[in-house]
Specification:
With 275 residues, this protein is mostly helical. Helices cover 68% and strands 4% of the residues.
Length: 275
């Protein structure tokens, strides 16, 4: 209903709905996908894991600002039609950014729940080699530093891959969810589902953005005039690794939280009682 009402208001040109159309549409999308997941599994972020969902909203805003930082060097996108008054402008920013991680992670969870990709033979004894882990971390570090040291609009692919290469091995070392580790063990559906989730969300982002009153435009110097909506066709490929980065960054934050909580618990037990 939220998506439908927002679409009708957009066609009628009713403000401020036209200005906040993108976050409104994504609010409806998150509610829709979460309820489908709950219907299929009996478990979902909004229905049974609300605390995790609330934390995810704030993490999503913070994580996306990391990419906004990189855009200062890449200059791949800019915003148009945003409100002039700071409060209303940042309301739109925060609301929109808060929907990014929930949208992709929920879509990924839905794709897995639908069992579109059949799991292959699993070998739980296989692990990532130390050589692979070191090379991946080194490559990720180089990819993330290069656009800052030598800025260029052609280096977006390094940012879309850098966090995946850097953080996923750490997720594996911390005993958390790892795309690379799943692949080695035979769980290929993890990567495939993320690719599908990234593509679905990417197409919807560009579709809804194209008609919105407040929107973003791209400056991608590769086939820039060959576009679907506002996005050059080649740019849609970036949504595939971006979905993996969303997954990896969130699981890395979860792993860090578990480590900090465990360290705090151990420290508390070892400290002498104060009378």
């Amino acid at each position: 209903m939220i998506i439908l009402i927002a679409e009708v208001c957009l066609v009628l040109g009713l403000e401020p709905i036209t200005i906040y159309f993108t976050p409104l549409a994504w609010t409806g999308y998150v509610l829709l996908i979460d309820s489908l997941i709950y219907y299929l599994k009996g478990d979902s972020l909004l229905m049974t894991r609300r605390r995790e969902f609330m934390v995810l909203l704030f993490l999503s805003i913070g994580f996306w600002y990391i990419f906004e930082f990189y855009n200062l060097f890449l200059k791949n996108w800019h915003y148009l039609g945003v409100p002039e008054r700071r409060f209303w402008r940042y309301l739109g920013y925060f609301w929109s950014f808060a929907s990014i991680w929930p949208a992709i992670l929920l879509t990924n969870e839905l794709v897995l729940a639908l069992k579109i990709f059949k799991p292959g033979a699993i070998n739980s004894n296989k692990r990532l080699s130390s050589t692979f882990i070191i090379v991946s971390i080194m490559l990720g570090t180089v990819f993330l530093l290069w656009p800052i040291v030598i800025p260029s609009p052609y280096l977006a692919v390094m940012v879309w891959l850098g966090f995946w290469l850097l953080l996923d091995p750490f997720n594996h070392l911390m005993g958390g969810k790892s795309i690379f580790a799943d692949w080695v063990k035979g769980r290929r559906e993890t990567l495939y589902a993320l690719f599908v989730a990234g593509l679905i969300c990417g197409i919807l982002w560009e579709f809804w953005n194209f008609w919105a009153g407040a929107k973003w435009e791209y400056s991608i110097p590769i086939l820039e005039n060959l576009k679907i909506f506002e996005m050059p066709v080649v740019g849609y490929l970036g949504f595939l690794p971006f979905a993996c980065e969303v997954y990896v960054m969130y699981n890395f934050s979860c792993g860090l939280w578990r480590k900090l909580a465990l360290t705090s618990a151990v420290a508390t037990k070892k400290s002498p009682d104060l009378v």
